[in-house]
Automatic annotation (TrEMBL):
The lineage of its organism: Bacteria, Pseudomonadati, Pseudomonadota, Gammaproteobacteria, Oceanospirillales. This is DUF1963 domain-containing protein. Pfam families: DUF1963 (PF09234).
């Protein structure tokens, strides 16, 4: 994947300044096939560990949640607004990999997915220095191969990080609508968004937001899940994209039918390092 910013298409050139104003940095994550040996290292999957004075998060049924991902921020480039160090752990319910299916996408749905009953984010401000068993709480070992909806194909993968930048994409609804309002376009916002992404898609450097990352703009395959009145205040914390089935030299992730998993946090909570209300969903169920 290229580190270059896409060139602004000729068809959108009259809004060059407005598009450039949407530039946002993020931490791009590349997954590696070799599982890290250090239990506090950044990784996808594997067994969960916490200091002995903490418990592994449990779901709405009281069952331990599997560890989806762990990010050691001491290994990451710094990102404005994010913690400068520590450990972020992302847990999701085993059933349907944390997905919650509402009858309607409304405030009740949103309250459910931020409740901590289907997913949970744990933040440790400093990375523990111990790996002694008697000083750890060890989570239940989950075999992803036995979990139909879990996206990792049974693998535990390492992570490599780099800083990138991106323009807003049309699937990030509140951010794109804010950008659209600056263009003065008389075209319908939906049609404008289709033309926007299609114009950029001719450039191989344009991902439309689809990659593994911390921060930046989210991407969706079935529409933005942020349904609250303050949707624009819920920012992307972590995104895990679908890739492919693994081969001998690669890693594989697949959410349902090539969906995307997103964790969102209110910007005020992020500023306070309060991860008790984080919304999680993945699409293409």
């Amino acid at each position: 994947m290229s580190d270059k910013m896409p060139k602004i298409p000729e068809s959108l050139s009259e809004w060059t300044d407005e598009i450039k104003a949407t530039i946002k940095p993020f931490v791009s994550i590349r997954l590696t096939a070799n599982a890290p040996e250090n239990i506090w290292a950044s990784r996808i999957g594997g067994q969960a560990f916490l200091p002995s004075n903490m418990q592994i998060p449990v779901d709405i049924d009281g069952e331990e949640m599997p560890l989806l991902a762990q990010i050691n921020l001491d290994e990451c480039p710094s990102l404005a607004g994010f913690p400068n160090g520590g450990l972020l752990q992302f847990y999701v319910r085993e059933e349907m990999a944390g997905a919650y299916f509402p009858e309607e996408y409304n405030d009740d749905y949103w309250n459910a997915i931020v409740s901590g009953q289907y997913s949970r984010v744990v933040y440790l401000q400093s990375v523990p220095s111990t790996e002694q068993p008697d000083e750890l709480t060890c989570g239940k070992f989950f075999n992803p191969e036995d979990m139909d909806e879990f996206p990792t194909y049974g693998g535990c993968y390492g992570m490599e990080f780099s800083i990138k930048q991106e323009y807003v994409n049309a699937s990030a609804s509140p951010e794109f609508e804010a950008f659209y309002s600056t263009t003065g376009s008389e075209e319908d916002v939906f049609d404008f968004g289709i033309n926007y992404d299609e114009s950029f898609s001719e450039d191989d450097n344009y991902t439309g937001g689809s990659e593994h990352k911390l921060g930046g703009y989210p991407a969706f395959t079935q529409g933005d899940i942020r349904v609250t009145a303050d949707a624009g205040d819920w920012v992307l914390l972590f995104q895990l994209d679908s890739t492919s089935e693994p081969d001998d030299d690669d890693v594989g992730l697949m959410w349902g039918d090539a969906g995307i998993g997103n964790f969102f946090i209110h910007r005020d909570d992020l500023a306070k390092l309060d991860f008790s209300r984080v919304a999680f969903s993945w699409d293409c169920h």
